[in-house]
Amino acid sequence: MADLSNFPITTRWPAANPDILQLYSTPTPNGVKVSIMLEEIGLPYEPHFINIGENETWGPEFLSLNPNGKIPSILDPNGPDGKPITLFESGAILIYLAEKTGKLLPADPARRYETIQWVMFQMAAIGPMFGQLGFFHKFAGKEIEDKRPRDRYLNETKRLLGVLEQRLTGRDWIMGDEYTIADIAIVGWIRSLTGFYEAGPLVEYEKLSALPAWFERMLARPAVAKGVNIPARP
């Protein structure tokens, strides 16, 4: 049995099975990327719910794993060379899991980098812009009388949706006929934008066709349907 006692996070969230990957997360758009990926590849894992509403990511145990204080993070006792490895940043975790298992990342070098570029597109553009729009549309930002900040993120979100619509026109998946980590990286943010943030009408989501069709294909995947609710909220 693996000894994870050197990792302080296991004192706060003990591992029931220290021989399998430990996931520390919340079912947010970023968090579900990893749970969906783990469900897709069939790698055994143990999820731990991190209550971000109670600021649990800012405790010393979680910060020992991710000094940036954000979910998701993982502790894999079976890392490179058989040694434990910890990782944060959802995009990095997706690439790690894909390379560890040889799944959902093309082996062809050109297609591999093309896939990674779409993961980076999500990390650098979709996540930050959709998240800011959600803040200004649904949360405290909606109380700001000056709507220019909201409209800045609204216009950029609509532009990014247009990029996805164009990319998916004539394609089943971001990489065409091959389902990859690029699809997994994006699906939670479309789900949150149109659901949790209630911004579908605001961004005129109904005017799109290829993107909503892709989204329905994503939701129909058993691993996606399961992964969006992992870790389960108490």
From TrEMBL:
Residues 18-105 form the GST N-terminal domain. It holds the Pfam family GST_C. Residues 108-234 form the GST C-terminal domain. SUPFAM superfamilies: GST C-terminal domain-like, Thioredoxin-like. It comes from the Bacteria. Belongs to the GST superfamily. This is Glutathione binding-like protein. It comes from Rhizobium oryzicola. The lineage of its organism: Bacteria, Pseudomonadati, Pseudomonadota, Alphaproteobacteria, Hyphomicrobiales.
